[in-house]
Amino acid sequence: MNNEHATLETLTLERDAWLKQVDTMRGFEQLFDHLPGISIFAKDKDSRIMRGNASLVARFGFKEESEILGMTDYDLFPKVMADKYRKDDLEVIETGKPKLNIIETFFNLQGIPDWFIANKFPVMTANNEVIGVMGMLKSHKAKSFHDGGLTYSRLAPAIEYIQNNFKSTIKVEDLAKVANISLRQFGRLFKEYYAASPQIFIIKTRIQAACEALRSEDIDIANVALDLGFYDQSSFTKHFKKHMGVTPRKFRESI
Q1: Beta partners for 133?
Q2: Confidence of residue 108 (pLDDT cuts 50, 70, 90)
Q3: Domain 33-139 fold
Q4: 172-179 and 150-165 are packed helices; what angle lies between their axes, rounded to 10 degrees?
Q5: N or C: which end of the chain has fewer CB atoms below 10 A?
Q6: Assigned CATH for 150-254
């Protein structure tokens, strides 16, 4: 046992000495730029972007990291959405604890409502002082490290069905049939993978579509509600405020 501890101690010292020689700015970051489907970012305490990998830069429509340096979520998203992201950042910075598996809907580069999973961690100094937040954002389609993407593959037909039909009434029973999974197993797998029920997934997809529709002042809010599958404007307003923190009208005013 003592020899094992001695070996581990020696290896640890050798590892630390090796890491001191590594130019992390050129080494590990080259790896980050080639992680398929994963965007990586680091922000300071004011939530200004200090670092971003190639995927993150491209996600916002830029070519070089220098183009997004110093930007905040308020430069990239509507105020209501930026407020939500800033709230998450502050929680991580103030507690010094990570915030994992944050499920969000965004429009992807093709303009289709899609789901993304975010993980945020505190940026620490050698003295354990929190000086910012870092994290990763990946599409829900990205392969899971746990099952090699098997779960998503099984749920994919249902997700595609939702994306193509979210404006219409969708029953969970129909989604289970599309995925060729029993209703009970479908509900369990869906909630495990997305940390949300199929019903919430559908509503949040509609809400994200509403955020895009509300950018146009020519469309009446009541028509947005009906076009996206809500029972009426009252129901739409209730769900929108629950997920976005403000009413559709306030959201439109903030854009």
Answers
A1: 43, 122
A2: low
A3: Beta-Lactamase (3.30.450)
A4: 130
A5: N
A6: 1.10.10.60
